[in-house]
Design brief:
This protein is α/β, with parallel strands linked by helices. The protein contains 11 helices and 10 strands. It is 38% helix and 18% strand. A 6-stranded mixed sheet has the order 5-6-7-8-9-10, with helices on both faces. Strand 9 and strand 10 form a beta hairpin. The radius of gyration is 18 Å and the shape is globular.
Length: 279
């Protein structure tokens, strides 16, 4: 199939979110696994430039650095094929090794581009140390219900929410009921991202719809990562969940206005300006 406008740049959900946190003014540390190759050199150079701490980045010569191939249509929508590669070798011991850093944090964020039990160990250690835990469950897989208790904030999109519960991505059960089902089993707040519709906050006591911010969309890739980075920083700074989600929506919207993920991840001054206009 012929295509145009090839571009290559840094990515990976955890990596993107670490950069997003730093650009929002947060003190950002990244726990990850890279191959010993040219791509890892690009990554480390970016982390240095962005101010992301890499004390807990590890290397392997068994597998290459993880990659993703993104196919973008003229409307700015995308699908992504990923090879997690070196990420697959990152077991829970790498999280345990970073426990002292976790203890001295306000928020620990994980995605699912590592083995599931590694992500769950991050949530468990965060909870054990009274640190707010945020799980961005992508790419989605079913999570054992015994681990729901370790998750304070869960940020799936609508299809990911269903996959987490072992359902088909298009299951007709209302999103609110699915979020409440997870909360009944010990999970905290569920914030469902809904693309151009915005986000839905489901707490134990309330359901709050946050409208999206309208922008001229160039590329939706990375919008979820920008959303989670903004949410993490705002909530860690003490913002209430509604304000933090509004800030997150601004981050996601701004990311859609540029081609490429890292170029689109916004800085704090941009987010604050859009937040004042939008909310």
């Amino acid at each position: 199939l012929p295509g145009t406008d090839f571009d290559m740049g840094p990515g990976g959900k955890g990596s993107n979110q670490a950069v997003g946190v730093a650009r929002m003014g947060g003190s950002s540390s990244f726990i990850g696994m890279l191959g010993k190759d040219k791509l890892s050199e690009i990554a480390i150079s970016m982390y240095t430039e962005e101010g992301v701490n890499t004390d807990f980045v590890s290397y392997t010569d068994q597998l290459p650095t993880g990659v993703g191939v993104i196919v973008l249509n003229p409307q700015g929508e995308n699908f992504i094929i990923i090879d997690m590669a070196a990420n697959n070798l990152m077991d829970a011991s790498y999280i345990v090794a970073a426990e002292d850093r976790i203890k001295n944090s306000k928020m620990i964020v994980s995605v699912l581009e590592t083995p599931l039990m590694t992500a769950m160990k991050a949530m468990e250690l965060g909870k054990r140390n009274h640190i707010t835990t945020l799980l961005n469950p992508a790419p989605a897989v079913q999570i054992p219900e015994t681990h729901f208790q370790y998750i304070d904030l869960l940020t799936p999109n609508e299809s990911e929410l269903r996959i987490l519960l072992g359902l088909k991505p298009n299951d007709p059960t209302p999103t609110i009921k699915l979020a409440q089902r997870m909360q009944d089993k010990g999970l905290g707040t569920v914030i469902v991202t809904q693309g151009e519709k915005g986000a839905m906050i489901v707490t134990q006591n309330d359901v709050i719809e946050i409208p999206s911010v309208k922008v001229d969309v160039v590329d939706t890739t990375g919008a979820g990562d920008a959303f989670n980075a903004g949410l993490a920083v705002a909530y860690a700074e003490g913002k209430d969940i509604v304000t933090a989600t509004q800030i997150a929506c601004c981050c996601g919207a701004l990311c859609c206005t540029k081609l490429g993920v890292v170029p689109g991840i916004p800085h704090r001054d941009q987010v604050e300006s859009l937040f004042k206009k939008a909310y």
